[in-house]
Amino acid sequence: MPAQPFALAPVSEAVTRDIRVEVLSRYSAENSGPGEWVFEYIIRITNLGHETVQLVTRHWIITDALERTREVKGPGVVGKQPVLAPGESFQYSSWCPLKTPTGMMHGTYQMATADGSTFDIEIAPFALKAPYMKQ
Asked: Mind listing the domains of the chain with CATH numbers?
């Protein structure tokens, strides 16, 4: 595990091979219920390099406050496999349910270049934190 959730901020940024991944997460009270905390995260991926790339797959590692971990792997993000020319960005939002009021996420995206070669880019760890609520 890269860091303890309480030590992380609900934002992160990483640059791998000239691709920047920025994340902002927030607790979604309107989608949460008893025993389930739902978090929304917004991600912006920006191509800072000189070659066009395509996001092919995602790999998330999600850890709750009890250190239970689950992995999510699949093609693209939100049903898309965006192509980013130099200077372009792609932004999307998604969500993550947890069985605890805090946790963390991190992972990778697999990117492909025009010649078909692939490489992974980092999604730096970020916190999932619900505000404290009196019972």
From this structure: 5-129 (2.60.40.1470)
